[in-house]
């Protein structure tokens, strides 16, 4: 309870002052209905925290670490993540539309059904993440590393995947445009070729 009051209190003070929450470490806090709109988190560590119905629109995170946290019905649209680590976090169905992720590492994340439409990813790494049936329409990826990312059923319409190595990702039933132009310039493994062939409507004979 003290941790919860501390986190909530710090957010209120940040809102009343300069809009910056910096240099703190919080563990096991529950935050419900909090307004983090346009706040800045700098060198903040959250471990085992639970955020419910929080408005994190335009939230900016710099050199932060979030581990084993749960985001439930939270909005992170137009948020900015720089040099930030997400480890084992859950954000199923959350709204990340228009967010920007730069020089960050997300590992062990569970973001099924999340909306990452028009998001921008640059010089970052996604490892062992569940993005099944997530929306990544018009997302842009630059100098990214993806490993063991499950994109089953993900919507990638008009996403820019050129230059990505998708050979260690699951691509079953991904949704693309009719021309499948999204995959142009991306690398896949030989065992993924039949999956791509099915997407293209090609029948592979054994």
Features:
alpha/beta, 7-stranded parallel beta sheet, 11% helix
* Global outline: elongated
Estimated structural class: alpha/beta
Annotation, overall tally of beta strands: 17
Q: Main beta sheet, described?
A: 7 strands, parallel
Question: How would you explain this protein's 3D organization?
Answer:
By secondary structure, this protein is α/β, with parallel strands linked by helices. The protein has helices at residues 2-16, 193-200; strands at residues 20-22, 25-27, 30-32, 40-42, 45-47, 50-52, 60-62, 65-67, 70-72, 80-82, 85-87, 100-102, 105-107, 120-122, 125-127, 140-142, 145-147. The strands form three sheets. A seven-stranded parallel β-sheet has the order 1-4-7-10-12-14-16. Strands 2-5-8-11-13-15-17 form a seven-stranded parallel β-sheet, covered by helices on one side. The longest helix has 15 residues, at 2-16. It is elongated and about 65 Å long. The mean pLDDT is 93.
SSE inventory with pairings:
Layout: H1 2-16, E1 20-22, E2 25-27, E3 30-32, E4 40-42, E5 45-47, E6 50-52, E7 60-62, E8 65-67, E9 70-72, E10 80-82, E11 85-87, E12 100-102, E13 105-107, E14 120-122, E15 125-127, E16 140-142, E17 145-147, H2 193-200
Parallel strand pairs: 1-4, 2-5, 3-6, 4-7, 5-8, 6-9, 7-10, 8-11, 10-12, 11-13, 12-14, 13-15, 14-16, 15-17
């Amino acid at each position: 309870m003290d941790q919860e009051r501390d986190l909530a209190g710090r957010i209120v003070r940040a809102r009343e002052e300069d809009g910056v929450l910096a240099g703190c470490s919080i563990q096991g806090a529950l935050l419900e209905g909090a307004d983090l709109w346009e706040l800045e988190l700098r060198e903040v560590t959250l471990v085992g925290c639970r955020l419910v119905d929080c408005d994190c629109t335009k939230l900016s995170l710099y050199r932060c670490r979030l581990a084993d946290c749960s985001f439930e019905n939270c909005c992170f649209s137009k948020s900015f993540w720089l040099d930030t680590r997400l480890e084992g976090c859950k954000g199923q169905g959350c709204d990340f539309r228009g967010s920007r992720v730069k020089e960050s590492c997300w590992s062990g994340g569970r973001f099924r059904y999340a909306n990452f439409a028009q998001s921008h990813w640059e010089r970052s790494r996604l490892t062992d993440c569940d993005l099944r049936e997530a929306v990544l329409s018009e997302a842009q990826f630059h100098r990214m590393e993806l490993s063991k990312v499950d994109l089953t059923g993900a919507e990638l319409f008009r996403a820019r995947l050129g230059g990505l190595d998708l050979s260690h990702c699951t691509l079953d039933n991904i949704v693309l445009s009719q021309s499948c132009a999204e995959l142009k310039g991306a690398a896949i493994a030989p065992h993924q070729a039949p999956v791509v062939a099915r997407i293209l409507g090609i029948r592979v004979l054994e």
